[in-house]
Amino acid sequence: MLTLKMRRDWHYYAVAIGLIFILNGVVGLMGLETQGWQNYAVGLVTWVIGFWLAGFIIRRPREEPETAEP
Q1: Are 34 and 42 in contact, with CB atoms under 8 Å apart?
Q2: Nearest C-alpha neighbor of 57 from the set 25, 2, 3, 13
Q3: pLDDT digits (tens, 9 = 90+) for 1-22
Q4: Do 55 and 12 touch, CB atoms closer than 8 A?
Q5: Rounded distance, CA 38 to CA 4, Å?
Q6: CB contact set of 4 (below 8 Å; sequence gap of 6+)
């Protein structure tokens, strides 16, 4: 059984990778012609945007500090 934090992180990365595939598809459909280092730059930008959007989609609630019960 995975802990709650591990499950949230798994969903975050899964959504991020899905968004990266979608963004790469959008760039491909736009017909953007890149050469050499521009391929890596476009890939890096799609990764950054994918993880940034995943942070908005997968909201992590604030974790309350555990109080010690007497």
Answers
A1: yes
A2: 13
A3: 767 777 767 888 889 999 999 9
A4: yes
A5: 39
A6: none
Q: What is the pTM of this model?
A: 0.71
String of DSSP letters for 18-67: HHHHHHHHHHHHHT----THHHHHHHHHHHHHHHHHHHHHS--PPPPPPP
Residue 70, pLDDT above cutoff 60: no
Amino acid at 6: M
Question: How is residue 31 written in tokens?
Answer: 């017909």
Distance between CA atoms of residues 6 and 27, nearest Å: 32
In this prediction, residue 9 carries a pLDDT of: 78
